[in-house]
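Is 6-O-phosphono-alpha-D-fructofuranose placement plausible here? Inputs below.
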Amino acid sequence: MQTIFQTIKEIAIEIDHAIKTEDLGYSDSSNSSGEDQLKLDVKSDFLIEKAFASVDIVKNLVSEEKEGVLELHENGKYTVCYDPLDGSSLADVNLSVGSIFGIYEGELKGENLVASAYVVYGPRIELMIATKEGKPLHYRAQEGLFNFIGEVTLNEKGKLNAPGGTQKNWCDYHKTFVDDLFAEGYRLRYSGGMVPDLHQILLKGGGIFSYPGTSDVPNGKLRQLFEVIPFAFMYEQAGGQAVNNKGVRLMELVPSHPHDTSPCFFGSNYEIEKLKEAYGVTA
Ligand code: P6P
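Reply from A.M.:
I modeled the complex. Tokens:
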């Protein structure tokens, strides 16, 4: 597994360089979710595939930018599911973007996730790694090397509220839930980039990130294998919770297709319990 984390560190340095030096325009293709691909999306996906091509323990790759499962090494052990450059459309307005990695062993489902990692490309390159051994581990790059900063723990209750999705298409009880948190004094922190938005809540002690099902997108927008489940693992390892609109742990998801999405809520315990109450799904 350490070889995979070392490879992610090397990938992070390469993608950061690409963000800072390459064309931010659109390619002439779109991905499996029908989203227009930036040249940076394609380049980041290429860099990740090239890097893992030399890591024998990686059996398969599943990418947001690819249709199906790409076999790399027949005798490999892990499947790496990744979003090569999440929120890439924010790069041309100089906001932070990120890469997300879920490392699975066996069938691609939540309970088979063995580790997850994400990289934030911002004023600094930051890396978070979660395994079953303990709390998420936070690293920061300096001159191409990643220095360990510390373990990350969510407080029982936070103060940040990151409400995703098109507000006019929220259901009434979701709108009430979001407004009630603001009435309690929560601060709005939403950039439109899942990685920096969830990273901020983890590092600032807690709160909630929500991307619900909406009238136009009932199953939500965020992809289970390479966005939702990897962050669900991060948040649970940090002492928080991560559930869907039925109050079910996102770690119990079993996608039927590599690009399946799910409504998703990640946060400190207080906020997630409030969400379950608002959705009428308290245990
Ligand atoms: P909306 C970026 O496109 C992304 O996939 C996530 O990074 C982000 O959380 C979400 O979509 C933002 O979606 O609908 O709020 O713009």
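Short version: Residues 160-278 form a domain with the D-Maltodextrin-Binding Protein; domain 2 fold (CATH 3.40.190.80).
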